[in-house]
Structures are given as structure tokens and as C-alpha cells.
Amino acid sequence: MRKLRFYGYGIPSVQDELVKGRLIVIEGPDASGRSTQIGLITARLEAEGHAVLSTGLKRSELISEGILEAKRNFAGRRTLSLFYAADFADQLENKIIPALRAGYIVLADRYIYTLMAREAVRGISRRWSHNLFSFAVVPDLVYYLDVRPQELVHRVFQKNAYLDYYESGADMGLSDDMFESFLKYQEMIAREFRRMQKRYSLTIIDGNRPIQEISADLQKRIDDYLESAKGHTGS
Predict the structure, then answer these.
(1) For 27, which of 23, 91, 93, 144 could close a Cys bridge (C-beta 3.0–4.6 Å)?
(2) Please, are residues 128 and 112 in contact by the beta-carbon 8 Å criterion?
């Protein structure tokens, strides 16, 4: 059992609460293989007897539709940031913390780091973003799947026939050519994650490798951590 740690003041009602679950975050751009890896990790952990909860961005039943509507109406950057913060806060209070209390391993398909990276490259103060998400629980593990933009664009086209407006940075006026805008934007996001690496204890994983090779890498890291945590708590 351990106390929850927050990046700032946290949520007053649960600051001193003891939990036995673990929070593991898989970060990475669209088409980096996050969902595939989370599926493989989930299957492995459940086979070993762990209770697992998956969460991610835009999954709040209260807020997710509002985010889509805000994007359709080209809402301002800070407005979108606040929508995403509300979405995250709802899930944190009503899904993530209760699951950690119950002993689940929570696998987050993206976390506050994607939101902060998006905000930073769009000119929003890093301090403002950090303060906005100061109520977030500090995860036990954070992995960032780093994939070259040129590889990403091929993977995107394997899934879809188009490039996403926001994931290409089209709202930023980086280029009149969507393909070029995508490459520039993804490089900016990757650079921001590297900037955040030390402050937020991100482990960068080479996401250019085959799926099974990445999976074996992640599984070993997670297994080693869980074994170490088990020995440390004596449970």
C-alpha cells in the first residue's frame, strides 16, 4: 500500500489515501502502435492474474462529445486545453483512482504528457500547462513510443486515407502541404517529449522496431518493475 503522489496539490479528498494498484502510461503519436501494445500488455497481465483497466484521452462520458464539438467549431487553443483537462479530471476521479484503490493495474493510452506537448508546440506556456494538470496522479511507469515521422506517415496511410487536421498541425499554419505539415508537426511533438523526459521520468522506447520486439521490451520492463514493487511492499 502507498500514498498517491500528485504533480501539485492533487485532489484534496484523496491526498492521504492508500492504494495498492499501479498506473502505467504508454505515450506516443497516432499510429505509433500504442493501442496494439496496450492490448498485448493487457492480455499478458490478465493471464498472470492481474485486474487491468484501460483508459485514455477523450473517454469521459461527460466531456468527450464536447471535445469533438469544440474541434468541429475550431475552438481556441486554451479552450481545447480546458476541455481535455476536464475530460482527464473526470476519468481520474471516477475511473483511475477508484481502480488504483481496488488494486487494478491501470494502463493509460496517453496521459497528460500528450496534452502538454500539444499545448507547448502551439505556444501555450509550459508552466501554465503544468499548473493546469497539477492535480494529476504521478504514474509508476511512463513509456514513450518514439517513431520517426516518415515511418508514422506510412502507418497512418495504412490505416486511413487521410491525415488528421490537428495531428498534422494544420491549425498552426506550418505548411500549405498537409504531408509536409504532418512531418514538421510530428517532429515538433517528438522534440517536446524529449524535453519533458527528465522532468516527468519518461522512458523513451524505440517504436520503429517490429511489434513483437517492442512488446518483448515493454513486457520485460513492466515485469521487472512489478516484481521489484512486490518485493518492496512485501505483498
Answers:
(1) 144
(2) no
- Residue 63 to residue 57: CA distance in whole angstroms: 10
CATH number for 76: 3.40.50.300
Handedness of CA 156, 173, 175, 144 (dihedral sign): negative
Distance CA 193, CA 197 (A): 6
Quote the pTM value.
0.92
Residue 56 lies in a domain: yes
Query: Which residue has 475552438 as its cell numbers?
Result: 75
* Bridge partners, 194 (sequence order): none
**In contact, 146 and 204? CB cutoff 8 Å:** yes
Domain of 172, in residue numbers: 2-230
Residue 235 lies in a domain: no
Alpha-carbon torsion, ordered 153, 157, 160, 166, to 10 deg: 20
- Residue found by looking up cell 494498484 in the block: 21
* Grid cell listed for 4: 498517491
Q: What is the pLDDT of residues 147-180, one digit of tens each?
A: 999 999 999 998 888 899 889 999 999 999 999 9
Domain count of the fold of the chain: 1
Q: Distance between CA atoms of 28 and 34, rounded to whole angstroms?
A: 7
Sign of CA dihedral 67, 68, 73, 75: positive
Query: Distance between CA atoms of 189 and 29, rounded to whole angstroms?
Result: 8
DSSP letter (8 states) at residue 209: S
What are the two backbone dihedrals, phi and then psi, of residue 207, each rounded to the nearest 5 degrees? -90, 5
Q: What are phi and psi of 56, to 5 degrees?
A: 180, -175
